Each structure stands twice: as structure tokens, then as C-alpha cells.
Amino acid sequence: MGLVVQKYGGSSVADAEGIKRVAKRVVEAKKNGHQVVVVVSAMGDTTDELIELAEEVSPMPSGREFDMLLTAGERISMALLAMAIKNLGHEAQSFTGSQAGVITDSVHNKARIIDVTPGRIRSSVDEGNVAIVAGFQGVSADKKDITTLGRGGSDTTAVALAAALDAEVCEIYTDVDGVFTADPRVVKKARKIDWIASEDMLELASSGSKVLLHRCVEYARRYNIPIHVRSSFSGLQGTWVSNEPRGDQPMEQALISGVAHDTSEAKVTVVGVPDKPGEAAKIFRAISDAEINIDMVVQNVSAATTGLTDITFTLPMTDGKKAISALERTKDAVGFQSLRYDDQVAKVSLVGAGMKTNPGVTATYFEALSKAGVNIELISTSEIRISVVIRADEVNEAVRAVHTAFGLDSDSDEAVVYGGTGR
Amino acid sequence: MGLVVQKYGGSSVADAEGIKRVAKRVVEAKKNGHQVVVVVSAMGDTTDELIELAEEVSPMPSGREFDMLLTAGERISMALLAMAIKNLGHEAQSFTGSQAGVITDSVHNKARIIDVTPGRIRSSVDEGNVAIVAGFQGVSADKKDITTLGRGGSDTTAVALAAALDAEVCEIYTDVDGVFTADPRVVKKARKIDWIASEDMLELASSGSKVLLHRCVEYARRYNIPIHVRSSFSGLQGTWVSNEPRGDQPMEQALISGVAHDTSEAKVTVVGVPDKPGEAAKIFRAISDAEINIDMVVQNVSAATTGLTDITFTLPMTDGKKAISALERTKDAVGFQSLRYDDQVAKVSLVGAGMKTNPGVTATYFEALSKAGVNIELISTSEIRISVVIRADEVNEAVRAVHTAFGLDSDSDEAVVYGGTGR
Lengths: 423, 423
Hints:
CATH architecture of the domain at 3-175 in chain A: 3-Layer(aba) Sandwich
Low-confidence stretches of chain A: 414-423
Number of helices of chain A: 13
Distance between the termini of chain A: 29 Å
Strand content of chain A: 15-25%
CATH class of the domain at 3-175 in chain A: Alpha Beta
Largest interface: A-B, 40 and 40 residues
Oligomer: homodimer
Number of strands of chain A: 20
């Protein structure tokens, strides 16, 4: 029995009852002979309350102080969890990100982990303690300032510690039963996936699936750490995410892992761009200078008569305004004709490593959409993903049609709650 | 203009408004050319709320985890204060006790400071920042665990930092205007003291005055740091506490500094103790083994006929039960006759270095009490203090009579709020 890292999100430790329930689950793993390291987020709404306080004292709180403030949240939940575990007769010690050796760069509010030196954690578990570590936080290598890791930070802390401690598995406890073949709120017959390859999970994460964030899966893939996403409310097996299937997992990958959708993006079309070298570069330099991350990019073949082409890309809806002003400023330099902005769009993505060797997938996908009366506006593909942009009000219908067409529907209706993993 | 350490208690930073008011005051000191280090307590009720949470998860929280939990409180207030100061256009950085170099022993919940290595604080203020330090907390020298300093901890942090940074003054901001010649809730005509010698302040603190705790005054006395106790609500000069008066302060000490009273003690009498060497030692060894701190001790001359004597001592009322059981267990070994316990008592103390050279003080004191019809049950004196134990229901009358008798009454009625300094 080796070392297990367990991560519990804010909804799992929202109150004293939740903390006691988590303590029981941790003790169970300990009783089964594992060494256990637990990573916790802040309790329920603590972070929101702290942010509210910050806004009351300053309209633009400094990054360093904001991190100092927010990290109080995990300090509370981790100390309480340690007390609850000790109350069950097992030894436990809590550690801040800094004490746990989570070393980051100095970018406050969204620091990146650059090293993990878990000497104190190793000693603590070797002495028989459950080690509890504050998620989401670290200490900067140069200035020794407290940093936070930004969105999905606690999951990343868990995976990083699992890698540094050479853990058997990193268990991510959340409020859903695992990763599903589609969002169960949309597709009643969505099935829980027992095992999914890391690369498929990465594509799902960047296509709108919210159970695991891309960043955390990428970290786990790089260090070959199996993730087990499961519910902190049920005792059920969840979804295993790993580079290769393990002994008891299917050796052959599913053709299609799942259907993801995303309604948080908008579509920008730059109309009438002169079709000559360097024009597209100017456009995307302007977008990049505005610090906007774009997603899909499509350029049509230019019309022979005019020598002009259209370039379309998608980006987070929240960056729409910024993108349009950035482009307006380059209008003369680029020489395009006009801009179109559309945020009534949705992206539907089909993900599966199996599609590499199965030529019929694209046809089946598009036929399913067509039969459902859904018009495709943009297409973009990777080796293991096909994404289309459609009208936002057709998204549910489209996801259901595709899910059925690829035989992903389960036999029974599942009743599950589906939600984000907090930070 | 040198370095100033300012300490603000929990009531001064109870909400966003309070924090902004404190920020303004800090900036004022900065504008006057001072380098400023600020020590803050947790906001208002934060500590109580955290304690409540701890009690919900465990009936007997571990010391280490309890300290980890409680220290979240200052983390919140200090980060918010830093944001509020930056919002006023001045640079500020917050530091945990550990970052500020407050090194303690390993006694959780009531650690003692054993060293202060304020290198980061010095650098921060030298770079032009206001440095904000979490009060009440430190890090243990051996295990590098987070510790808390117990009651009055934030005041002690402030004085310790002032000493380590060779500050001009340690300003303790509270919700009263300073130290008074008596508790203004009892004596309407009590006067604010402009300057008081450290040794007198020490006696007042151990006699029931709650504005400054003994521990913090003792630390300041040892390192010769002047303390200025003042209100965070008014801009008025408060009370200076120092070993020697400064240039603008009266060179000659007042005869009497003030009258303190304390109703939190109880009186235990061990009746019929054989008057021979070693008996008293046995009694107080039993009390000490029970970890009870006693205050006054009085032994009457033994009655010649019986060879028996009575030993009376006072102790915190909260330890009364424990003391009685400890003594009951030694009854046979000591051979005393019986025990009497009385918690309807009050201690009234007259403090003033002037009494060393003024033989009439004791007489005036007792005459004042006698005229007020107050019976004295016990008397105990130090070089600069005379304490008496009387009936609890006569304490207000006694304090007023003594205050008047020594000419301490002010000409006008003062209207002030008097309260504790939190931690």
C-alpha cells in the first residue's frame, strides 16, 4: 500500500459536518494501510467573502496582498480538518503551501508551480501522520512571498504533490460521480466513464468539460500520475484518468470518449482581409498584445475575383469587447473591410483517440447534426477532436443527437448532480 | 524622524470602515516623515468565530492546529489593511509573524517570544513601505510550526518588534483614551494619566487595570521602549509609559499614579495549619502542581495557645474549584483543620512610586476606607503598591473614596468608554 494524495474541494468542506465527513473518509484510507496526504480548498463561500471584504477596502487590491488575504481560507479548512481527524483518534498535521514546499514564480493571483520540495510532508507521513496541505497556494522562489495558483489551483497542488511524493494515485473528490460522456444536465443518458486516457481528458477539458481543468490533467500527464476523480458524497468508484490503462481497466480505448460543449465563447469575423502574407499575423499580433487567448481559427479560401478573404476566430465572450477595440485600431494597417461579432454561438466537440484510425467518424458526426437540423458554422479539428461552432440555442439538441449517434447513451436514466470543482 | 511601531486591536479593525480609518492614521504618520511598522489583531469577532468552528469539529482541538486556525484571523486583517493603505497611494506590505521573524518557543496557544529577527521588515520599511505585521503569532524555533502568543499577544508582538527595530515609540491604539487614575466606569472623575513610569504601570496591570497587560509592559521596560497608549478613534495624546520621563513630561513623579481594582479573584483560607517549618511549602507546592497562579498570600501570627495558624491567599476565581480539590488531597499530609472559600471579594490597589518616600500614604488610604465604612480583610504591600481585599459589593464605593482622598479627582466629569484591548 503506497501513498495516496486526496483533494477535497470547497463544497466538500463547506461546514463542520462536511469536514467531519471528509475526516472519516481520510481515516478510512489510512486504515486501509495507505499513507495519506490531503489537499483542501477553502470552505464553501469563504473565498467569496474575503473577495467582498477586499473590494470594500480597495477598488483594485494589490496582487501580493490579495494572495495573502485569500490564503487565509485554506488555513482555516486545513486546521479544522486536522482537528477532526485527530478527534477520530488518528494523528494529523496541517501545512501551508509554503511549509509543504510548493515553490512558485512571482506572478500573484495566478502563479505557476516551479518546484515542489515536500521534505516536511514526507517526514510527517513517515511519522504516521495524515499530512494536510493547503491547496491553491505556494511561496515565490525569489521574494518568499505568498502566492496563489489561480483557477483550478487546488487540483494542481494535489497533482504536483502526488508527483513529488511519487504517489500511487491522486484522488480528486468533487460533487459529481466522475467524468461523463456528456454533461448529464443536458444528456440524461450520459454515462460515467470508468477510464479515460490523459490526452482525451485534456481535449475534453479544453472543450468545455469542467470536472477537471486542463492545467491539472496536463501536469498529471507529464509526471505520469493517475488521477481518480470521484464523489466525496458517495463511496463509488469514479473516473480514472491516466496515460495508460491499468490492469483492471479496458486495454482498448473507446472509439469516442465523450461529447463536450461550451457556450462561453464568442465568434469574431474579420471580413475582407487582403489575401497576402503577413495580414493574418498582424491581426493575431493585435489580439495577443491585448492579452487575449483565442481558441479556434478558420480562414476561408479567398474569392478569386477580389483577392480578399475572411478570417474567423473564437475567444472567451468576456474578452469580446477588448478584442473588437484592439482590431478597430489596426483596421488601417491591415486593410480589412469590416468586423462581425457574434456571441450567440456554442462549440460542440467530439473527443476520442479512436478517431485517429477510424475514418468514418467525421461523416457520422456531421450526419447526426444535419439530421437534427443543426447548421455548422465553423469546423476545427485536432488528431483526436472534432469541434464545430453552431447556434447557441441549438446546443442541447446537437449534443444529444451526437451522443446517441455514437452509441454513448446508457441503458438507464442516470440522476446525478453535475457541477464545477471550485478552485 | 525615526521608526514608529503602531498596534491596532480587533475593535479598531472590526470592519471595512475601521480598516480604512486605521489606514488614514497610518498614512498620517508616514506623511509626518516616520518609518511605520503596523501590528494588527484579527478583525472584531473573527477569533471567536474560528474558535466556535473548532469546537464544532472537535471537543478538544490540538494546540498546533488551533494555532494554525487562529492565525488566519490576522492574515485577513493585515492583508486588508495593506490594500487600504495602498489605495491611499502609499506602499504597504503585510507579513506573517513567521515572515516578520517572530521566533517563539513551542508552547502552542501561549508561546513566548525568544527572538525577533526583523530583517524583512527592516528592508521593507527602508524601501519606503509601511510594513504590516500579524500580531499574536510567531513560528517555533525548533519545529518551524506556527504558534500563538496567548492573551495580550498582539501588544507583545508590537513591543518586541519595536525593541528589535530600535523604534522611537510603540503606539498601542485601543478604544479608550489612555490609562486613567481609576476605571472611569466606576470613578466618573478619573483623570487620564499623561505619563506613568513603567514600574507603576506594571503594578497597575497586575492589580486589575486592563488597558495594558503586564507581559507587554515588562517587555517594554526591559528593552527601554516607550509605549504610547491612545485611542484609535480620537486624535488625542494618550498615556506615555516609559522608564524615565521625556523632555516634555513632568520630571517629578506623582505621589500616586492610580487606583486599580479587581473583582475576578477569590480568597482561600487554610485554617488551623501547624505553625512549623515546611507546612506552607506543602500547601503551595500542591497549588503550583495544579498549575494555579496565586496572587496575595497572608499568614497570621499563630495563636500562642494552639500553635496553629491560618494561611490565606487569593487566586483567579476560575481556578477556585481546582485549588480546593488540590488542597483537599493534601489535608492529611499538611494536617490543617479546614478550608474556607470566598469569591465575594474584591481587591483594591493603590499604586505610586511616590509612596516609597512618603510615610503617610498607608494611613491616608486606610482612613479613607474606614470613613467609607469599608472593612479590610487582607492587606498586602509592595514597595510601590498597597492592596487590600474587601467585600465585592463595596468595591465601587471604596475606589471612589480612595481616589478622592488622594486628590486624584479631575475638575470635570469625563465621558469615556473603557474596555479591554482584545488580544
